[in-house]
Amino acid sequence: MRPRTGLTPRVRTLALACTAAALAAPLLTVPAQATPTPPRTGFEETNGARWTSQPEEQKFLAAIDKSTDRVSVARIGTTKQDRPLQLVRIGERPTKNTVLLICSQHGDEPSGRDACLSTIRDLAYAKDKETRKFLSRTTLLVVSTANPDGRAADTRGNSDGVDINRDHISLQTAEARAMAAVIRDRQPDSIYDLHEYGATPKYYEKDLFDLWPRNLNTDEAVHGEAKTLSEAYVRPAANKSGYTTGTYGIWTDPVTGDPIKQTAGDGQERILRNVSGIKHAAGLLIESRVDPLTDAEKKDEALNNRRRVESQLSALGGLFAYADERRGQLEAATGAARLEGFRDRGPIYLGGADNDPAEPSEVIQDPPCGYRLDAAQYGDIKDELALHGVKIKKEGKGAYVPMRQSARSLVPLLLDERAPYHLVTGSPDTDC
After folding, report:
1. Are residues 234 and 301 in the same domain?
2. Which residue spans traverse the membrane (predicted)?
């Protein structure tokens, strides 16, 4: 049976996920709403006939920000076309556990953004005990539109045509720089990245695909938490709502379900999903299907749009259940991973993935003590190092970047000449 396709803007079940052991009742519900009347998105006002516009988003968020102390909205950057990049914080009080949503890095993939907006509103106005308890223990951060210029133009890239999701190492775009600063300053335990995809008949056409960090520099415990988020929470939540799920980038045999081809989803460090793991967060990419599923959806674009948003909302329920039920395990994993770099032990991987072992040439088995940058090199990338949270020691007009730091696994990816996307070629210090 297909799930219903009508949105209920005043009443929404946000957590449809359950533990791996049992598919039981929802964790969080948002029944009664506070006064004044909660605002509605442009998407909701038109019942999915069109996506929420940027001016509507600004009015919507301003109304929520004004109505409750539970929510604050701050500008974290400005795009080339002078649109605001905004961070929404939702929570009852400061907490250790922090979840970050990145909504629609690709401007032509809007369902995640509208799911984020209605989620902000529903959590902001919720009065039930369970939701308030959740928000007293978890801070939710939301970059409500990660690519405002692309969303306005309905393009994948930003106004310069740059794919923001390939800029999380070099940080050349205002959008990626803003996200890097949030990750550095807030140190989220989970980073959840909402996208959409085009289906391939028979082999690749689930309602939702997801994928954890495959980059081999991801701490083992953090990698395990990201896979748990996917396999024990997000997918069961979507399945419980009637949606099919799978692993992003993997074609499967329609009869046996066996993987037959990998077309995407590698360990490339430029992608936010992988940067999340390298920066010690349980990252997850989520992709909803753009293409119509039924004859009715083919005839009614709004019906298809509503299904796209509702599938994203079902998966978000799994994220919230995970954040609530596994907060202790997640905090332990991310906390330990952030300290591990100070031990300065183990190899660094310049290639490979969790399902594709690195070649010998892609492994730095005995990393240097650090990298020296001359004055010109340091001048070129000092802002990017700062945005990444990389610690340096000034040496005259240049700098020394030690490996013994929380960002240890990131340092060679930025500075070693063997790394595919390095920013400059630092001089390795092997006198340890």
Report:
1. yes
2. none
User: With contact defined as beta carbons under 8 Å apart, do 174 and 79 qualify?
Assistant: yes
Tokens at residue 137, please?
């223990």
pLDDT digits (tens, 9 = 90+) for 167-220: 999 999 999 999 999 999 999 999 999 999 999 999 999 999 999 999 999 999
In which domain, by residue range, is 396 found?
A: 344-429
d(CA 304, CA 294) in angstroms, rounded, equals 9
Instruction: Compute the CA torsion angle 83, 88, 324, 238 (nearest 10 deg).
Output: -40
Task: Return the pLDDT at 432.
Answer: 82
Q: Express each pLDDT in 244-277 by its tens digit.
A: 999 999 999 999 999 999 999 999 999 999 999 9
User: Above 80 in pLDDT, residue 8?
Assistant: no
Domain count, the chain: 2
416 near 423, Cβ under 8 Å? no
Separation CA 122–CA 12 (nearest Å): 7
Determine the Cα angle at 223 with ends 319 and 336, to 5°.
100
- Identify the band that residue 94 occupies on the pLDDT scale cut at 50, 70 and 90: confident
Residues 160 and 285 in one domain: yes
Are residue 366 and residue 237 in the same domain, yes or no? no
DSSP string, 45-86: HTTTSSPPPHHHHHHHHHHHHHH-TTEEEEEEEE-TTSPEEE
End-to-end C-alpha distance for the chain, whole angstroms: 63
Asked if 215 and 267 touch (Cβ cutoff 8 Å), the reply is yes
Q: For residue 5, tell me if it sits in a domain.
A: no
Q: Are strands 282-289 and 190-197 parallel, antiparallel or unpaired?
A: parallel
Neighbours of 142 (CB within 10 A): 26
Report residue 189 as tokens: 């335990």
Residue among 111, 65, 109 at smallest CA distance from 84: 65
